[in-house]
């Protein structure tokens, strides 16, 4: 008997503006029964990342373009409810790219079985793209050494909060930049940052100078724009600048102008590099085990912001761009 699933389809490319409700269209779709080797999966949680707006705009060339009418691309955790000789057993929880749909018929080639002693949602947060991005960006690109000062922008976000804690595990001094006293207090009191800078309090460059008196050895940038410019002004000799994201550009849709202080890379003999986390996909199982070990021994805390109701998927994505989320943004169906 066919399964009926609600799905959110892409209905607009939000270039040069913020995401609007009309960019999505809610439909009901009749899914076929699983064919040989296929499974029917009921999606239980969806995960949300700022990169999804870039996918909607079709400016991210590391993923296939999205056409109007496509099921909105995104990550999820689902439960196998029927299998016709599929890879996973009925009752297994699996995760990966599922799209914004209540049910999915698939061979499951791009899905992974949830195998963790943590709550299952951890595979979308601290053990998912969030934690993997923090780990690979910091250690593969930033290459911190014990005693380094690591400065993280967007530090109260899901990825940023993990970066600072990993920096502490590596023996570094971690300083975070976030917006508002509440977020800054949380960074120091809960996420273990040594210091937090409130960019909304004004004179960001002076605050950076105060909290990074010997310069910045590693920048982990999630924001771009003026904040990156102010961080570059304080880099130490031999600094490594990791470009992870640019949430400052997501509302405008245009790529940010190059930083005025980029020539400081020359004066300080520093390097600046971007990365795509999937480049290290072969190492993900080992990295997940390492991250879970850090959580188990109390050295890595993580937060999840879980909204509810499939109909609220667009509103949940928009939370990322106004700083409403506290930790990894997810939705329970």
Features:
alpha/beta, 333 residues, seven-stranded mixed β-sheet, Quinone Oxidoreductase, Chain A, domain 1, 27% strand
Summarize the structure.
The protein is α/β, with parallel strands linked by helices. The protein has helices spanning 51-57, 129-142, 158-169, 181-189, 204-211, 225-232, 264-267, 284-296, 313-319, and strands at 3-10, 24-31, 39-47, 75-83, 93-97, 103-106, 111-113, 149-153, 173-178, 195-198, 216-221, 235-243, 271-274, 304-308, 328-332.
Layout of secondary structure:
Layout: E1 3-10, E2 24-31, E3 39-47, H1 51-57, E4 75-83, E5 93-97, E6 103-106, E7 111-113, H2 129-142, E8 149-153, H3 158-169, E9 173-178, H4 181-189, E10 195-198, H5 204-211, E11 216-221, H6 225-232, E12 235-243, H7 264-267, E13 271-274, H8 284-296, E14 304-308, H9 313-319, E15 328-332
Parallel strand pairs: 8-9, 8-11, 9-10, 11-12, 12-13, 14-15
Antiparallel strand pairs: 1-2, 3-4, 3-6, 3-15, 4-5, 5-7
Characterise this structure.
- It is built from nine helices and 15 strands.
- It is an alpha/beta fold and 333 residues long.
- The protein has two domains: 3-125 and 303-332, Medium-chain alcohol dehydrogenases, catalytic domain (Quinone Oxidoreductase, Chain A, domain 1, Alpha-Beta Complex); 129-278, Rossmann fold.
- It is globular, with a radius of gyration of 20 Å.
* Distance, first to last CA: 22 Å
CATH homologous superfamily assignment of the largest domain: Medium-chain alcohol dehydrogenases, catalytic domain
Major sheet attributes: 7 strands, mixed
At CATH level 3, the topology of the largest domain is Quinone Oxidoreductase, Chain A, domain 1
The H/E string reads EEEHEEEEHEHEHEHEHEHEHEHE
Uncertain residue ranges: none
> What gyration radius follows from the Cα positions, in whole Å?
20 Å
- Indicate the mean pLDDT: 93
CATH class of the largest domain: Alpha Beta
- Tally of DSSP β-strands: 15
* SSE-based structural type: alpha/beta
Can you tell me the CATH architecture of the largest domain? Alpha-Beta Complex
Shape call: globular
The domain count comes to 2
Q: What's the helix count?
A: 9
As a percent range, the share of helical residues equals 10-25%
Binned strand content: 25-35%
């Amino acid at each position: 008997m066919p399964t009926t699933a609600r799905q959110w389809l892409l209905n607009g490319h939000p270039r040069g503006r913020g995401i609007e409700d009309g960019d999505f269209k809610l439909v009901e779709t009749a899914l076929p029964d699983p064919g040989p080797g296929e499974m029917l999966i009921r999606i239980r949680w969806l995960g949300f990342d700022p990169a999804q707006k870039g996918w909607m705009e079709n400016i991210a060339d590391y993923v296939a373009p999205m056409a109007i009418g496509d099921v909105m691309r995104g990550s999820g955790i689902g439960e196998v409810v029927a299998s016709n000789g599929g890879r996973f057993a009925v009752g297994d929880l699996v995760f990966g790219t599922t799209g914004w749909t209540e049910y999915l018929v698939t061979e499951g080639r791009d899905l992974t079985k949830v195998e963790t002693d943590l709550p299952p949602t951890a595979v979308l947060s601290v053990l998912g793209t969030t934690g993997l991005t923090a780990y690979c960006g910091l250690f593969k690109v930033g290459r911190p050494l014990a005693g380094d000062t690591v400065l993280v922008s967007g530090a109260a976000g899901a990825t940023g909060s993990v970066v600072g804690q990993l920096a502490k595990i590596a023996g570094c001094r971690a300083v975070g930049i976030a917006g508002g006293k509440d977020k800054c207090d949380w960074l120091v009191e809960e996420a273990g940052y040594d210091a937090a800078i409130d960019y909304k309090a004004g004179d960001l460059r002076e605050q950076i100078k105060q909290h990074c008196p010997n310069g910045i050895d590693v920048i982990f940038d999630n924001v771009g724009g003026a904040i990156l410019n102010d961080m570059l002004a304080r880099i130490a000799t031999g600094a490594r600048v990791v470009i992870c994201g640019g949430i400052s550009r997501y509302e405008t849709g245009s790529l940010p102008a190059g930083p005025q202080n980029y020539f400081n890379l020359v004066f300080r003999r520093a390097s600046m590099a971007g990365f795509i986390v999937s480049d290290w996909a072969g190492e993900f199982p080992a990295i997940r085990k390492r991250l879970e070990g850090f959580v188990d021994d109390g050295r890595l805390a993580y937060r999840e912001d879980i909204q509810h109701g499939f109909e609220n998927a667009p509103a949940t994505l928009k939370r990322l761009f106004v700083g409403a989320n506290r930790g990894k943004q997810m939705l329970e169906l």
